[in-house]
Amino acid sequence: MEKSAIYHQPCSSYAYPYDKETMHLKVRSKKDDIQSVILVYGDPYENVKVGENYRWVSGRVEMKKSATTSLHDYWFIAVKPEHRRLQYAFVLTDSNGASVFYGDREFLPNDQVTFSVPDNFFKFPYIHEVDLFKTPEWVKSSVWYQIFPERFENGDPDRSPENVLPWGSKDPDRDDFFGGDIQGIINRLDYLKDLGISGIYLNPIFKSPTNHKYDTLDYYTIDPHFGDKETFRTLVQEAHKRGIRIMLDAVFNHIGSKSKQWQDVIENEQKSVYKDWFHIHSFPVRDGENGNFDGKPSLSFDAFGFTTTMPKLNTANPEVQNYLLDIATYWIREFDIDGWRLDVANEVDHAFWKKFHQAVLKEKEDLYIVGEIWHNAWNWLQGDEFHSVMNYPLTKSIINFFIEDKIDSSQLISSLNEHFMKYSRNVNEAAFNLLDSHDTARILTLAKGDAQKVKQALAFLFAQTGSPCIYYGTEVGLDGGNDPLCRKCMIWDEEKQDREMLLFTQKLIKLRKDYQEILSKGSLHWLETNDSSAIGFSRELGKHAIIFIFNHGDKEVSVSLDEAYSYTDIWNGKELETKKVDVSAQWFAVLKRGV
Which part of the chain is the Glycosyl hydrolase family 13 catalytic domain (predicted)? Predict the structure, then answer.
């Protein structure tokens, strides 16, 4: 038995309350090393008298192996402690029949002496409903559509900058303007509804000199090239009428160098009332002086990266906190937005995000909070900061297999299992899942123009638990390399659109909505395909199951199904006549298992 591989941590993603009466428990072991895991559990205060002594009342139940990676097995169980308290330990038995007790004092003999000492057990003292990881229920059924406003549609040409270029006349450079605005989004709400979209994530819309708006000048003002507050109010209201939610981008890590606060610091230096709003090491802070050259690590102040136009805000300063929290609640209170996406969220202190969480949810209890974090984000996902992060680790795994052909199906399964096990099920159910964004090359370009690969990747994304997001234009074949090429103008000329991709996307979104509950909450079970280019899994909830089989190879594959059930090909809308499904090369099958 490889004890060094065995791991459990109370009050973490290995032991957490899923709801007000259910505990989820996980334990990790070396791959193929452990034959069985028994959970021993009970209320820490429940004892019965046996002669002159008292014996703790406990139960035993076998855990299921729920996931396997290249290195580890993960064992899982859900239990409902009657009094919402839990004392527990694990008895692990290896393939040779040797067993061991694993608890709060680590490894001990599996005997009565060990079981008689309460301190040997792990504890979960009490399930407090107020401490649950709670996410807005509506998120789980949402399909998002990310819009870079300057490039979606020019709906009000009178608002366009003087140097505006004809729509789609060239590939964008970093400083180009094409006139996209909020009215353009309003004009296309019916298009988005027909597509099946239920949430719009907007890149920044506040006043800024750039096309991307990540260098904010005034958080209380809509950029005049985009519209005004009444235009934005109309957008929210009209979106809501169509069942579409609105999530804005909050850039609170840094502010634009043309903002009044930073300009005051430049002018007044140490006498500025705003000098403590920033992380300043020495004066002056003007460009070209005191080491302040864009892109150089010699800056005399902290910034986003080493970008002189984006000085970093000191979010530990109470004045800055009050300023940003008022902004966050203002747009909820006055315009009824439904979510905040938080830019560069991992570089802002946890203390501020906890205050942010409390403030915005007090204003609107079902608001969705998404942090921009590209890596393992477990310490931001404890229930008191974010509901989700932009799920780029999932993105990368999907791209590695379906787009770049860098890994085989077993490696994809290992990568995904490792990712899902890092978080609680609550977190995974509300994850913000995506294939590309304004910060990455577009998925069609990564696929070198292979639309079939993109379709497979999209279908796989939509089959995962969480909330999928489409980057504008993916549904009509918009391509583009890394920034700024990933921010091309939306294609509205139907003759230039990939209409087959559009119909495919509509069909995929409908499938997601038709089976939303099982895709959001169903347990994941990988299927044996006997092919390194094929991957299959079922999503199961109660007696119901949806099965997905993806063939990423260049030859047709056949997968045998459980003979005990009947199956319906729900992608093609027909009954499956045999207990075997044939999947064409570079395609997939979606089946509904009969009860």
Answer: 146-512
Name the active-site residue from 150, 223, 343, 531.
Answer: 343
Say how many C-beta atoms besides its own lie within 10 A of residue 559's C-beta.
20
Residue type present at position 278: F
Q: What angle do CA 554, 534, 69 make, to 5 degrees?
A: 140
Report the candidate in 505, 511, 503 with the shortest Cα–Cα distance to residue 539. 511
The amino acid sitting at 144 is W
Reported as half-sphere exposure (CB side, CA atoms, 13 A), residue 218 has a value of 8
Residue type, 466: G
Q: Which two tokens stand for residue 542?
A: 């109660």
Contact between 433 and 467 under an 8 Å Cβ cutoff? The reply is yes
Assess whether 129 carries a catalytic annotation: no
Q: Which of 87, 80, 115 is nearest to 99 (CA)?
A: 115
Q: Note the pLDDT of residue 586.
A: 95
The DSSP line for 327-376 is HHHHHHHHH---EEEETTGGGS-HHHHHHHHHHHHHH-TT-EEEE---S-
Q: How far apart are CA 363 and CA 352, in angstroms?
A: 17
The answer to whether 372 is a known catalytic residue is yes
Residue 94 pLDDT grade (very low, low, confident, very high; cuts 50, 70, 90): very high
* Alpha-carbon gap, residue 269 to 283, rounded angstroms: 7
CA angle 457/461/465 to nearest 5° reads 160
Tell me what pLDDT residue 48 has: 82
Nearest partner of 151 among 69, 63, 225, 91, judged by Cα: 225
Residue with tokens 């991709």: 501
Summarised one tens digit per residue, pLDDT across range 366-420 is 999 999 999 999 999 999 999 999 999 999 999 999 999 999 999 999 999 999 9
Average pLDDT, whole number, for the chain? Answer: 96
Catalytic residue among 176, 223, 372, 479: 372
| Mean pLDDT of the 15-34 span | 97
Task: Please tell me the distance from the alpha carbon of residue 523 to that of residue 542, in angstroms, as a whole number.
Answer: 9
Each residue of 414-441: b (16+ CB within 10 Å) or e? Answer: bbbbbbbbebbbbbbbbbbbbbbbbebb
Task: Say if residue 51's pLDDT is above 80.
Answer: no
* DSSP 3-state of 140: helix
Tokens 């990266």, residue? 305
For 417, which DSSP code?
A: H
